[in-house]
Every structure is written in C-alpha cells, then in structure tokens.
Automatic annotation (TrEMBL):
Biological process (GO), any one: asparagine biosynthetic process
TM regions (residue ranges): none
Sequence positions that bind L-glutamine: 98
Active site residues of this protein: 2
Swiss-Prot/TrEMBL site (Important for beta-aspartyl-AMP intermediate formation) positions: 343
Single GO MF descriptor: asparagine synthase (glutamine-hydrolyzing) activity
Domain Glutamine amidotransferase type-2 per the UniProt entry, residue ranges: 2-185
Pfam families per the UniProt record, alphabetical: Asn_synthase (PF00733), GATase_7 (PF13537)
Task of the protein: Essential for nitrogen assimilation, distribution and remobilization within the plant via the phloem.
Sorted UniProt keywords: Amino-acid biosynthesis, Asparagine biosynthesis, ATP-binding, Glutamine amidotransferase, Ligase, Nucleotide-binding
Name listed for the protein in its UniProt record: Asparagine synthetase [glutamine-hydrolyzing]
C-alpha cells in the first residue's frame, strides 16, 4: 500500500502552500515509508508516499507518460499490467512499475480505460495539457480514497482522511467503482457488474469453475518483488488462501527470489481458537508459521493509535482491527511487506452466522449484495489501514472481480444454509475444495464453523473491551448520548468510548459522516436484523450474538460469554464430491 495526496486548483501557489502539502503528505508516510515524491504543475500538486512492492529500484512515483504531460499518483497493484502493456506497443515505458500503465492507457483510451484494470487501486491522474484530471477507485473499495473541497475552490484526494480533514471544508469517502472527472465535475460509476442490480441469478452451481477461478485469483496476487506471507487465522477463508498459495508458490517468480516455503502469520490471546486452528493448518501445509500473542491490556493500550489509523468508530471494525494492527507490526519487523488475507468470502457466500435465518433465497442474495457494496466501510477498511499503519500491504483474493462475477452468478438456493442437506454456511466454497484425491485442507478445518476475527483471537478480548469501556463511560453519559452525538448515536458504552476517541482526532461533522451506522447483529445489515425478532434485543456485532446459531452464543442478552470454546462439533453430513479429478497445479 502507498499513500497518495492530490490537491488541484489551489488559489495559493506560494512556497508556503507547497510546504503545507508536503507536511500533509507526511501524515501518510506510514503507508509508504520507502520513498516520497511530489509533482507540481501550476496550481496542482500530486504527492506520493511509496511502499515498494513491484520494481523497488525504479518505480518511484508520481509516474508519467513519455513526455511527462500526463502525471499519475497511484496506490495499489495492477495484476494484469503485463497484458495491458502488450496492448500498447507504440508506448515507451520508463519503469517496470505495474502502475505506470495507467498513464499510457489514458493516452490511448481517454477516461474510459478504468474497467480494463484488474487489481486494487486508487489514483489521481493530471493531464497537464488542459489541466483536466480524473480520480478513480477500484471496484470494491479495497484501496481507501477520500475526496474533499477547500474554501478556495480546490479539490482534494487522499488515501486517508487525516491528510485532508484539517484543510477541507467538507470531505467524503470516495465511492468504490467510481470515477471523478474534472471535465464534468461529477462522479460516475464505471463498475457495473450484473449482481449490482441485486436481481436473483439462476446459474447452476459449478464447483470446479468456482475452484478454478479462486485459484487463479490467488496466483495472480503472488506477483511481488519483496518477501510476503499469508494471514492465517485457521478459519476456512484464510486457510484456503494459504492452501492455494502454498500449492502454487513454486511456480512463481517470488519463489525464485525468496524461496518456495510459504510464511504464515496468526495472532491471538493465549489459548484462543484461532491459534490452535492456525497451527494445525500450518503444520498440514508445511508453512513457516509465525504465532504471535497479545494480552487484553496490550490491545486496550493500542486503541487510540488504532482508531487514529483506521479512521472509524464502528465497533466491529475496531475490535478486529486491534489484533490485526498489533500483528502487522510484528510482520513488518520480520522484513515482510505484503500479505494475502481472506476478507470478502463471508459477504459473497453468506458466511456470517445470521445468514442461517435468511427466510428465502431472494433475501439471502440481496443481503450478500448489500454486504459487498458496504465492504469498503468495514472489512476492506480494516484490512487495508490496520496493515498499512506499519507499511504492510494486504491483498484479498476473494475480492477479485472475475471471481466475484462467477460466485455472485450462482443461484442463491445453493448458498442457503440447509442442515437437512448437510449444508452449513459457505457450503458452496467448502464443497468446491473438498477434494478426496488431493486434499486442500483437513476435513474438520474445511468445515469449521464461522468465527469472526474479533471472536477467534479469544472471546475474552471482546469481554475485556466492554469492561474497559464501562470504566470510562458512565450511565449518565449514556443517558445523554443522543444530545452529545445526535448523528449515529452510540447505543453501548463500548461504542460511546470509541466515539470519544474518534472525535478527538477527527472533530469535524464531515468526519463522523464517513462512518456508517444502524442496528446490526453478528455483522448483519439493518435490514437483516428483521429476520429474527429476538435479535432486536441483542444488537451486538459479535458472531456470538447470533442466538441459536453460534455454538458459543450468548445465553441471553445480559449473559456473560464463555471465556473459551471447545471444538464446535458442527460437522455436516458427508456430501459426496462430484468434482472431477484435479489437474496438476501447473495445468490449473
């Protein structure tokens, strides 16, 4: 991950203004500690803080076309850059950076090239010939981007809110899958997949196709010139990422540079469910496994720093971001700069435990669509900012555009939880990788019950956070919460505590409006809370709030959660695999 800051059309072009933009850009240096760049053209400034993943020696930004009339500052990775370069035979590339292709694509195709990019990205491009500019964000919002407006008529773009919040009168989260053009002065959506309309698909489930598309997604994300690894919680999603990466690593350039033994990383409280499961998966795959421990107090001590970096007061996001933030620091200390992670699967396949209560396939599918559309406000924000706080890049194979298109085109009847048929949550992806001849994972890991990251690191983590918040937020403070915080009023002491910290760093009304609100149970949207009347009395984002579903569910709305959980015992009836034998790795 890198940090970008672009300020266009400023009224003041003095040296003091240049110094101010450099100062603001430094607020993003944690994202890109390897190099700082700045391009100035009249009243336009494009700044960049680089984390060097591809072409570390010559890919410093901003990047240019041949005559430097087109300037671009980019955060992200373009996985199909070699294929795109092949379509531009008359263009001369100055670096081996995957992102330079953006400048040349603009020369060739104008503003209509963004859908050609396969990757995660947020960029601002300036055409100095007419001083027009565009900004765009990837399809799902894996890379963060904010847009703001100054009182002097300037337009701002930044990877994080902290670099523009002081100088902009108003700012917003730049919407995923959108492009802004100065020529029209408006945003338009460039990403228009079939699932976006939320109409119900009818394509039959094809397990082999689903597996093939996911393997391709993982393989393309092994593109790196620096050491990397996989975040392995021991749950289904991260275990599948690690299994596929381990299986195909030796075919890659990365293996030739850094060795063919995959490194995996896990964090948790001592004795937590994730640590045990991750160790078992790592042993099965033969990875070089790194296990990190933290205490509840260490997590609490990091809360202010976490909220400053992730820029949200959402309870679930903060709970999960804290251990990820602590783990990323340890990972960076080992010299690793890029990791693969399992975000996105639960949204695509209805993996959260509340999906057990979906009344029909229509509502199931519509909820998955709503969840994917909101990922940039939750899991994508967490995965990106918690890791980039320490100069580590997180890549998410489940959010590959092509994979999502295939997965969201499946008739949702196949995704529904049907215990009578032996189908638990995410059965379609579990079954796709249930290969008897060349197993990807042990059966009990492949069919392990969903455990949210903030739960899986140790149940006492959440209980400790609640206790800590109760010591700092009084009953009278909660009684007046609606007057102090009329927008997105916190409904728990934990939420109130996070809100106080957030407002200390980001006091403007525009900042609090970038954070979503509304009731939620076990990470549901507000709409899905309606699926079970009991949930409205137990609004907590923990997976254990899914009463009657999670094996370690809260006993009642006031009950204490167990400090530990035994093997969940959730084993579906064995489903006979209908997959064809798997081809050798090199042929897949």
């Amino acid at each position: 991950m890198c940090g970008i800051l672009a300020v266009l059309g400023v009224a003041d072009v003095s040296l003091a203004k240049r110094a101010r933009i450099i100062e603001l850009s430094r607020r993003l240096r944690h994202r890109g500690p390897d190099w700082s760049g700045l391009h100035c053209h009249q009243d336009c400034y494009l700044a960049h803080q680089r984390l060097a993943i591809i072409d570390p020696t010559s890919g410093d930004q901003p990047l240019y076309n041949e005559d430097k009339s087109v300037v671009v500052t980019v955060n992200g990775e373009i996985y199909n850059h070699e294929e795109l370069k092949a379509k531009l035979p008359t263009h001369q590339f100055q670096t081996s950076s995957d992102c330079e292709v953006i400048a040349h694509l603009y020369e060739e195709y104008g503003e209509e090239f963004v859908d050609m990019l396969d990757g995660m990205f947020a960029f601002v491009l300036l055409d100095t010939r007419d001083k027009s500019f565009i900004a765009a964000r990837d399809a799902i919002g894996i890379c963060p981007l904010y847009m703001g407006w100054g009182l002097d008529g300037s337009v701002w773009f930044s990877s994080e809110m902290k670099a523009l919040s002081d100088d902009c009168e108003r700012f917003i989260t730049f919407p995923p899958g959108h492009l802004y053009s100065s020529k029209t002065g408006s945003l338009r959506r460039w990403y228009n997949p079939p699932w976006f309309s939320e109409s119900i698909p009818s394509t039959p489930y094809n397990a082999l196709l689903l597996r093939e598309m996911f393997e391709k997604s993982v393989i393309k994300r092994l593109m790196t010139d620096v050491p990397f690894g996989v975040l392995l919680s021991g749950g289904l999603d991260s275990s599948l990422v690690a299994s596929v990466a381990s299986r195909h690593l030796q075919e890659t350039k990365a293996a030739r540079q850094w060795g063919n033994k995959l490194h995996t990383f896990c964090i948790g409280l001592k004795g937590s469910p994730d640590l045990k499961a991750a160790r078992e998966v790592a042993d099965y795959l033969g990875t070089v496994h790194h296990e990190f421990h933290f205490t509840v107090q260490e997590g609490i001590d990091a809360l202010e720093e976490v909220i400053y970096h992730i820029e949200t007061y959402d309870v679930t996001t903060i709970r999960a971001s804290t251990p990820m933030f602590l783990m990323s620091r340890k990972i960076k200390s080992l010299g690793v700069k890029m990791v693969l992670s399992g975000e996105g699967s639960d949204e695509i396949f209805g993996g959260y435990l509340y999906f057990h209560k979906a009344p029909n396939k229509k509502e199931f599918h519509e909820e998955t669509c709503r969840k994917i559309k909101a990922l940039h406000l939750y899991d994508c924000l967490r995965a990106n900012k918690a890791t980039s706080a320490w100069g580590v890049e997180a890549r998410v194979p489940f959010l590959d555009k092509s994979f999502i298109n295939v997965a969201m085109d499946i008739d949702p009847e196949w995704k529904m939880i049907r215990r009578d048929l032996g189908r638990i949550e995410k059965w379609v992806i579990r079954n796709a990788f249930d290969d008897e001849k060349r197993p990807y994972l042990p059966k009990h890991i492949l069919y392990r019950q969903k455990e949210q990251f903030s739960d899986g690191v140790g149940y006492s983590w959440i209980d400790g956070l609640k206790d800590h918040a109760s010591q700092h937020v009084s009953d009278s403070m909660m009684a007046n919460a609606s007057f102090v915080y009329p927008e997105n009023t916190p409904t728990t002491k934990e939420g109130y505590y996070y809100r106080m910290i957030f407002e200390k760093f980001f006091p403007k009304p525009a900042a609090r409006s970038t954070v979503p609100g509304g009731p939620s149970v076990a990470c549901s949207t507000a709409k899905a809370v309606e699926w079970d009347a009991a949930w409205s009395k137990n609004l907590d984002p923990s997976g254990r709030a899914a009463l009657g579903v999670h094996d370690a569910a809260y006993e009642d709305t006031q009950g204490e959660a167990p400090a530990a959980v035994t093997d969940n015992g959730l084993r579906p009836a064995i489903v006979e695999s209908h997959l064809k034998p798997v081809a050798p790795a090199s042929a897949v």
